[in-house]
Every structure is written in C-alpha cells, then in structure tokens.
What we know:
Elements: H1 20-24, H2 27-45, H3 47-51, H4 55-63, H5 67-78, H6 86-102, H7 107-131, H8 136-155, H9 166-172, E1 174-175, E2 178-179, H10 180-198, H11 200-210, H12 212-217, H13 222-247, H14 260-270, H15 283-301, H16 306-334
Amino acid sequence: MxxxxxxxxxxxxxxxxxxxxxxxxxxxxxxxxxxxxxxxVLLITKTDLYLTFGTVQSIIQSGxxxxxxxxxMIFVLMLGDIDVSVASIMIFASMVTGLAMDxxxxxxxxxxxxxxxxxxxxxxxxxxxxxAKMPAVIVTISTSMLxxxxxxxxxxxxxxKNFPGFYRALAWTNLFGIPISLICFLLIAVIFIIVLHxxxxxxxxxxxxxxxxxxxxxxxxxEKTKMLVFILMGFMCGVAxxxxxGRMGGGVSSTMGTGYELDAIAICVLGGISTNGGKxxxxxxxxxxxxxxxxxxxxxxxxxxxxxxxILIGIILIVAVLIPNIKMRRKNKSx
Length: 335
C-alpha cells in the first residue's frame, strides 16, 4: 500500500480581519460622507427642488460624460504617467462619428469608427511613451494640440449635428427612475474593478507604478503594459464621446470639451489615486465622480459664480492630496 507523499500546501497570504473602526475612516468612506453631506445641504436649502422627481437624476446625468475618462485615467495614473490629451481625443472621436454620419455610412459603423479613432490616438500616445521612451506629460500635451488642431482645421467654425439618436437617449433617459448613463458607468466600473483588483494585469499596474525597473527585472513587460493602458485610454475616450455628444444634445464643435482632461485627473486624485503611481482603488473615483457633479450643481444653486467655483474646487482637491501625504509622513515618523 503506497503512502501519500504529497506535501501540504500552506497559504502564506496575510489575511487581515475586518475592523469596522478602520473601515469607517477609509478614504472611500470619507468620500461617501462628503456625498451624503452635499445631498443634505441640497435637501435643506432647496427642499422643493431636491424632492422634485428628476432633479437628482439630472445632477447625476450632468457628470456622466466625464465618467469614461475617469475610469481610463485611473489606469494611466496607476503607472505613474498622465494623459492630458483625453479631451482632444474625445472631440476627435466625436468628429469622426459625425463626419461618418454625414457621409451616409450605417449608424453602427459610424459609432465603431469614432471609437476606433480614439483607439488609434491612444495607440499613437502609447507608442511614443512606451517604446520611444518619451515623458507622458510632454507627449500628451503635444498630441492634445495635434488632435485638437486637426479638428479645428477640418470643422473650422462649423458644428456637427448629425449623430445617432440613441446618444441623447443614453445621456438623458431614466430606467425605473435611475439614469441609464449611471447604469452604464457602474457596469463599466465593475469591469475596471475586476481588472485592477482581481487580475494579473492589475497587479502589473501596481508593480510598474511602484517601481518600473524592478518590474522589468521581474519579467513584466513594462512597454507592452503601458501600450495597452494608453490604447485602453483611447478606447475610453471614444466611449466618452458617446456620453459627451448625448449630453450636449447632439452637437459638436472644435472648441467643446476644453478642460475635461483636468477634471478627469482631479476626480481621480480626489478618489485617492496617487499621481506617483502604484496606489489607489477604483471605488474612490466612482464616488468622486458623483461628488463633483453634486458639488458643481450645489455651488451653482447657492449663487457661486463659475470662477469662484473653480477656486473652491481647487482648494478641496489640494486638501484631498495633502491629507494622504500627511498620514504617510506620520506613519513614516512613527516607524
């Protein structure tokens, strides 16, 4: 009778017990408190308006055109890179879709062409950053001007108005009282959560963001990973063009979308994504996207002008960046 010679496999992973006190002070929970506080301020100051059906839905819908850019930017920032060309790529993709519609091409192909245009722009960025070893900030500033310049040359002062009808329905229609755009955002966000937190690709992003040299020596293809991330960012710009055109009522000009890249980066930072790379979760930016929509709307109702709103939001973001840094310094000192 043969003996079982198999050696038992030991699980060496560190398993932390759930602690309610620690969970309640996590950054994501702090963002939830801020979101609830904004809703409470709206409820108290504008009770009739807040309780009117459609108000909360409209607030959420107003922030959803940024949501695909935010999700794509999470992966870019996780690498320790940055992409300031996303707004230009989004408008470029919108232009391609609009021109294709004007040319009489079938609607589905027009949508695909727009998204593929975004993918092509992202691949161009990725090739220069990953393989030509150029700094991401320099590349994307340059391509931002390049893509926006192409749109301005082609469109000049003209406005494209012929877009698929479902764009507007996606942006402004509710399903059982829930905005369809929010449902789409959350479904896409679930995919990003799985990829970043549950897959090998997600672990590679954390590794590269913390130390790209060590990652390379560990067998991770840094160039390939960066290329894929910027292609994905371009794809999300193409998706964002669908939300953007729908929210704008189906009209696109060369001057639209200015500043969207900074808003997307700001939301990611507010959500706890480190600009140094290798730190953060998808959950934070999801909540931060809603916070920015409610904050902008609340400040507008309170009579705060546009410039003052930008100043206030800028101060909030600075504080959001400072708090984790202060915590990290205290931990280092105590260690």
